[in-house]
Design a protein that fits this description.
This protein is α/β, with parallel strands linked by helices and 223 residues long. The chain has 10 helices and 9 strands.
Length: 223
């Protein structure tokens, strides 16, 4: 618990992104906000995908081949304490040309399954001394509650469909029953033509561009 509080006490911003189901545009939002954030803040941004399927979406769009993962760090460090390694962790993070870093949990499902919050907390604590951290949390991942606990801000990204809204209401009721501080949560609802409704304000991608957000170049898996 003390280590978890250490993550929250320093000046870094830890932002979690999640949603009720796949296909809400969560990862697209994470990537573009990370680019915009890195362009206007003094601190670099690190995306940590919490994805049980170990998909390589972020590395593809950030054009980072074979990014170093948490599992890779553990293999290199062995029994060495994270506290001893300290600032050397920053030099091991895979960075994109746009100033956004990437740290997946692992490159396989087995590697991801071996990473627990107990392992992740000291690593995030050290890295948060250098980076603002964006957690891209898969809706089905058991670490969702852990990510929400350590995040300063949570963006819940949903489609404007019955299934997404029903799932959102059910999960939020569960968290409220556990007396979770919902004031940290903001809901972003994706409507038609990639328009987001955030706290009652309509904000489209062209407006984001005008506000100096840097959008990723469009790439297809086939090149």
């Amino acid at each position: 618990m003390a280590e978890e509080n250490e993550v929250q006490k320093n000046e870094a911003k830890i932002v979690a992104f999640s949603g009720p189901k796949e296909g809400s545009g969560k990862t697209t939002l994470v990537l573009n906000l990370a680019l915009g954030w890195a362009g206007i803040q003094k601190r670099p941004v690190l995306i940590v995908p919490l994805d049980p399927l170990a998909r390589q979406e972020h590395s593809f769009y950030l054009d980072i081949a074979n990014p170093v993962s948490v599992a890779d760090l553990l293999q290199v460090l062995g029994n060495t304490s994270i506290a001893v390694v300290g600032g050397l962790l920053r030099g091991k993070i895979s960075m994109s040309q746009w100033g956004v870093g990437l740290l997946p949990l692992g490159n396989t499902r087995a590697q991801v399954a071996s990473i627990s919050p107990k392992i992740l907390i000291p690593i995030l604590s050290r890295l948060s001394q250098t980076f603002d951290i964006f957690l891209d949390v898969d809706s089905s991942f058991p670490m969702q509650a852990f990510a929400f606990d350590i995040a300063d801000k949570i963006f819940w990204v949903s489609n404007a469909t019955r299934t997404h809204i029903n799932s959102t209401v059910q999960l939020f009721n569960d968290y409220k029953a556990q007396r979770y501080p919902m004031d940290r949560v903001s809901v972003i609802c994706k409507g038609a033509k990639w328009t987001y409704f955030y706290l009652g304000m309509k904000m489209s991608w062209p407006l984001l561009t005008a506000a100096k957000w840097r959008l990723l170049p469009i790439r297809s898996p086939n090149g």
